[in-house]
Write a structure and sequence with these properties.
683 residues; alpha+beta; 19-stranded antiparallel β-sheet; 11-stranded mixed β-sheet
């Protein structure tokens, strides 16, 4: 009986022991099939949980604490850091607001309650607001940056290792295969059954900020909430030219409803009542010191000289206005109107190329909305090119009647590049008058123009734009042309027609432009007829990889009179906008003479962009380089058949740079570079 009893016990216990052993073995080193299955469930969790159109709202409480460990006058140069570059070294800022979330993206955030010790309750380092709501399951973690380790398309950039955590969860440890600023390291606690991320830790460095982010996700019962954080904690360090600032940010997402004010108010007592977490002793001390300094700064109302005080106040206000806008943007918003003025001194607006030289630009963006789809915008641009010593300006005023149908009317007043006239150039060359003084701008004309265009969508695939263009071109050297008996001012009045066609969003945009001048209207003394064709193709290949292709051509069909060769889609740009503008669609080494000598052109420009291509794979460089590009340009005009341009460029946290080589008729022609600041571009 004893033997039988032991045998029965053994028969019952042995499978359990074996199961436990096998379970422990699995926990320590899961099979590749199990790893792949769980990783696949993680990748698919978002798409299996909600649709992209699902919406919800959250009340978000944020608490920012800053400590300036080291600072010097260069901290004033950092946008949004001006307010903390002087005075106290410790700051705090709290806010309560309401966010609308579509899918897992915050599309609208309205602050309702605010208090803090930063001057005028401004927000330092607003870029960190993108970090508090990471889209873990999407391709990119923070808006348009940093490749998520929880997306299938980024799997090749990371190494994964599973380890046991609890009976229902597993721990995923991930490490980047390369030391690159677009990658992160860390861990995630994952639900074994669903692949849902319960919590995670992300460590990385991007845009001069070393960060450590901890995220607790919403509960599984709230399907929508499981895709957005319940709480985010960020510990970060910013270092720049000897400055070192530590930044702590806590964000808590609450599903319950507090009675928040209808409009934004600043009230510390109300924040004390609503605050969902206790302040630390250090944070309380920051508030006490701030309130004490504020109290001591109040003037003695009994003994003050009113006139003197008022004078001081005016001067102080003027000084504050200059200080606030010298290095920071002016921003103002209301229910219907908004305005944004770029800083007076902004390194981001400075660019250089060996062909176009050094240039600086400023911009103003204004908007007034009548409805969500009907609004008016005015976006003046002004800039100066130091190589040719010329001020450029552009004032586009656009009235959008219906955004859904792309119905708009635009009035544009601007000036263009200096341009040559073929008959004038020929007359100057044939002149044998030795008494005439010659200079480089003898055949150059300054251009001012006015454009009035109206656009409408006649279908979901076709747009039609009608317009009028009026040019007034005056000779740069009027004295010379008068001596030679030549015209010193040319005017053109030309109706235009543009048809645009896009089969769908995956196809290129095709356009054809027709322009014919009419002599005699508003003093027009030049006749011509011009056709241009253009197509642009931009394809997102995933994981921050992009392919851009632009092709086109143009020609003049009316050659009865001499005219300016001035194409719409083939021009020299003296005020570049940075990495994302004409770097792809234009030639970088061509001089203006090439643009104004041929009555026809055919071109193709292409670029391929990737975050991990060539230089970014190097051990030290990869930590700073965000994206790289390869360029190819091909051009055929009357005197160059063909012209090739090859280039390579990269952008990092500080600047964008590109190197280009030109080849004419198979032979090396020229080498040049281009440079623009990217410093604090996202700040």
């Amino acid at each position: 009986m004893v033997v039988n009893y032991r045998s029965n016990i053994l028969r019952l216990v042995l499978p359990v022991i074996l199961l436990c052993i096998s379970g422990n073995i699995f926990a320590q080193k899961p099979t590749s099939e199990s790893d792949d299955w769980l990783l696949q469930r993680l990748f698919e969790y978002k798409t299996l949980t909600i649709s992209h159109s699902d919406t919800t709202t959250r009340q978000i409480y944020t608490k920012h604490t800053l400590k300036s460990l080291r600072r010097n006058p260069t901290l004033f140069l950092v946008p949004t850091m001006y307010s903390i570059a002087k005075g106290q070294r410790d700051y705090i800022r709290e806010s309560f607001g309401v966010a609308q979330i579509v899918g897992a993206d915050i599309i609208d955030y309205q602050p309702k309650l605010l208090c803090g010790t930063i001057r005028k309750n401004r927000l330092a380092m607003p870029i960190l607001l993108d970090y508090i709501t990471p889209d873990l399951y999407s391709e990119l973690l923070f808006g348009s940056n940093v490749l998520s380790p929880f997306h299938k398309d980024n799997k090749r950039y990371y190494e994964y290792q599973w380890s046991p955590h609890t009976d229902s969860t597993a721990m995923l440890i991930f490490n980047s295969r390369l030391n690159n600023t677009q990658l992160v390291d860390g861990w995630a606690a994952v639900d074994n059954k669903t692949g849902r991320i319960i919590s995670c830790q992300l460590k990385g460095a991007f845009d001069m900020i070393d960060f450590n982010l901890h995220v607790d996700m919403g509960s599984e019962q709230d399907k929508h909430g499981s895709l957005v954080p319940e709480r985010s904690d960020i510990s970060s360090t910013f270092m720049f030219l000897g400055n070192k600032v530590e930044y702590q940010l806590v964000a808590q997402y609450d599903n319950h409803r507090l009675t928040l004010p209808d409009t934004l108010i600043t009230e510390q007592k109300l924040m004390d009542a609503y605050r969902p977490m206790e302040l630390s002793s250090i944070e309380k001390q920051i508030y006490r010191q701030y309130n004490w300094d504020k109290q001591m700064s109040q003037p003695d109302t009994i003994r003050r000289d009113t006139l003197v005080e008022e004078g001081i106040d005016v001067g102080k206000k003027a000084l504050e206005l200059i200080e606030d806008n010298l290095l920071s943007s002016i921003k103002a918003n209301s229910e219907r109107a908004s305005i944004r003025v770029s800083p007076l001194l902004d390194p981001l607006k400075l660019s250089y190329s060996n062909r176009r030289g050094l240039s600086y630009r400023m911009k103003i963006d204004t908007k007034y909305s009548y409805t969500a789809n009907r609004y008016i915008t005015l976006k003046p641009r002004v800039g100066y090119n130091f190589k040719i010593n010329k001020l450029y300006y552009s004032t586009p005023l656009r009235y959008t009647l219906d955004e859904r149908k792309n119905n708009w009317v635009e009035l544009l007043f601007a000036n263009g590049n200096r341009i040559t006239h073929s008959s004038v150039s020929k007359a100057i060359e044939e002149s044998n008058d030795s008494t005439v003084m010659r200079s480089d701008d003898d055949d150059q004309f300054n251009d001012q123009y006015l454009k009035l265009h109206a656009n409408t969508a006649i279908s979901s695939k076709v747009d039609v734009a009608l317009g009028i263009t009026y040019h007034k071109r005056k000779a740069a050297n009027k004295h010379l042309l008068n001596q030679l008996g030549l015209e010193t001012c040319y005017k053109t009045f030309a109706p235009t027609l543009t048809l645009s066609y896009r089969p769908n969003m995956k196809w290129p945009m095709f356009s054809v432009n027709y322009e014919r001048s009419i002599k005699g209207v508003l003093g027009s003394n030049i006749g011509y007829e011009r056709w241009e064709f253009d197509s642009s193709f931009k394809r997102d290949l995933g994981s921050l990889r992009k392919l851009n292709i632009r092709t086109g051509g143009g020609f003049y069909t009316d050659k009865s009179t001499n005219h300016f060769v001035d194409f719409e889609n083939f021009q020299e740009e003296y005020l570049p906008e940075g990495w994302d503008d004409e770097w792809t669609g234009n030639f970088q080494l061509l001089s203006s003479s090439w643009y104004n000598q041929s009555k026809y052109y055919a071109r193709m420009n292409a670029s391929y962009e990737s975050p991990l291509m060539l230089v970014s794979r190097l051990p030290l460089a990869g930590k700073y380089i965000e994206t790289e590009r390869l360029y190819l340009g091909v051009l055929s005009i009357e005197h160059t058949r063909p012209y090739f341009e090859l280039g390579y460029g990269f952008t990092c946290r500080y600047f964008s740079v590109g190197a280009f080589t030109g080849f004419l008729n198979g032979s090396f022609q020229e080498f040049g570079c281009k440079f623009t600041f990217e410093l604090f571009r996202r700040w």
